[in-house]
Amino acid sequence: MSSEVTAHEHRGVRHTHANGQLHHAHDYELPDLPTSVDIFDTILRDGSQQEGLSLSVDDKLRVAEQLDHLGVTFIEGGWPGANPKDVEFFARAQKELKLTTATLVAFGSTRRAGVAPHDDAVLANLIGAGAPVACIVAKTWDRHVAEALRTSLDEGVAMVRDSIEYLIKHDLRVFLDAEHFFDGYRRNRDFALRVLGAAEEAGAEALVLCDTNGGSLPDDIGAAVADVREHSSAQLGIHCHNDTGCAVANSLVAVQAGVTQVQGCINGYGERAGNTDLSAAIPNLSLKLNIRTIPSDRLELLTPVAHHIAELVNISPNPQQPYVGNSVFAHKGGLHASAVARSADLYEHIEPDLVGNGTRVVVSEMAGRSTLAMKAAELGLEIDGDLLGGVLEELKHLEHEGYHFEVADGSLELLLRRASGWKPDYFSVESFRVITDHSDPADSPTSTASALGVTTEATVKVHVGDERIVATAEGNGPVNALDAALRAAIEPKFPVLGSIHLTDYRVRVLSTGQGTGAVTRVLVDTTDGLVTWTTIGVSENIIEASWQALYDSVIIGLLHAS
Ligand SMILES: [Zn+2]
């Protein structure tokens, strides 16, 4: 861990070609570990290439604020000029983004082949973007120069040199993204190094080695970085894709071999298998290698920021995501869970608080009293032995009916709170009603079921204090209509509900043998943007089951907000 241990340690690295053939053994010397590395987040450009991920300009500004709040060094804002959204982002960023920690970076490419820098639109857009740093991509794999750019290797190198000089003359700091570097290095090392040399000579501040196809393994990365380091005194960066599942490992090895800028995305977004997950790379560097990344007092923001960004990009967080996932410090099973309570470090690789996550006890019908008592303590509830016995009985009874509290932490919290004598008094429900109408439009003799005119309307009657409120809303289905009606009734009284919304709704049929009369279990995920909770409902009537889960989700939202 300490630099004394790794300094000057020789390592023999076997180096293999992509075709699996072993070629020369490569020895390289590991330098001292750096004391700090720059964290460069590329969600707004590279991460947005992920299938299904689309950000509005407002979303992009919100993501940038979160990244700045977390304390990354650089935020890549997009490719100015590539599309109207990125143009608008840079225009608004200049006026609206108040970055306190991070520096905004505009992404682009070198000038086109055969075009003078001052005639090149991409370079003009980079200068016009108003960001202090430009990160430009250049081809370092000879085949790409020949086949994609259709130009000579000499012109490929000149494009890099000219573009960097031109941007620096216009007061920009320049990073070079050496695209396909590791593939290019394997096949034509001289050309790959020649491009880097030209960039450094032209004044590029950082040379970022990209594993664009994501096919490299840690040994390949370490040996190549060490070789580059011997030929260059510029800052080196690493940009990995996760196609081998090694993006984070590759980034760490690169740092150990001399890199001091790590590019990636919080939550590892990106095309195909994604980019380096900075949510794992940052704590690995900070907590395991003792290298400064984001300011140390902000490490505890990692989990809330990762979840907030997941919310902004509208992708459910992966519960098993290292460091920040909901399940990664969760413990199930009586013996194990009670041992965790005594000595957490026997079962947890770090203190979860360090990254803003927390130890979670998972409670199911298999749980003993001690597990339940720990869950109560986690929620700050004091429940004595007799009551605890009663809750356990009720829990087992409900699980027998089809409830599954292990996956419904919100409903479990309400069960425990009610046992301690608490009763939610935000509002009381008098009744609710859902009507679904469908009619076969007379003028459409060929209509199918999906073409039927279906409308759903829900009415909810509630009491808030002395006031009786009746609200009606339509929805695309009964649950959607009920949710809308309940919100219409109580949101004016509880405006906080405006920032709380459902993210997932799942139905499972439990006793399939009974056909449409079977018991259904409904799970609803709800978030306030920082925390997500799951609530449950079970009934033979799917609307009733959905209502229970919806009601619990709203109560938890109000409880946590107050
Ligand atoms: Zn990339």
Secondary structure layout plus pairing:
Layout lengths: L2 H4 L3 E7 L5 E8 L8 E4 L15 H14 L3 E5 L5 H13 L6 E7 L11 H8 L4 E7 L2 H8 L3 H17 L3 E7 L1 H7 L1 H14 L3 E6 L6 H14 L3 E6 L6 H10 L4 E4 L13 H11 L13 H12 L16 E3 L1 H9 L17 E3 L6 H10 L6 H17 L7 H11 L8 E12 L13 E12 L2 E9 L2 H13 L10 E9 L10 E8 L4 E8 L2 H20 L1
Structural class: alpha/beta
Strands ordered across the widest β-sheet: 3-4-5-6-7-8-9-10
What is the count of helical runs? Answer: 18
Strand content: 15-25%
- Let me know the largest β-sheet: 8 strands, parallel, barrel
How would you characterize this protein structure?
The chain has 18 helices and 18 strands. The protein is of the alpha/beta class and 562 residues long. The chain has helices spanning 3-6, 57-70, 84-96, 121-128, 142-149, 153-169, 181-187, 189-202, 218-231, 247-256, 278-288, 302-313, 334-342, 369-378, 385-401, 409-419, 478-490, 542-561, and strands spanning 10-16, 22-29, 38-41, 74-78, 103-109, 133-139, 173-179, 206-211, 235-240, 261-264, 330-332, 360-362, 428-439, 453-464, 467-475, 501-509, 520-527, 532-539. It has an eight-stranded parallel beta barrel, surrounded by nine helices. The model is unreliable at 1-25 (pLDDT under 50). The radius of gyration is 28 Å and the shape is elongated. The chain binds zinc ion. Zinc ion is lined by residues 46, 212, 239, 241, 275.
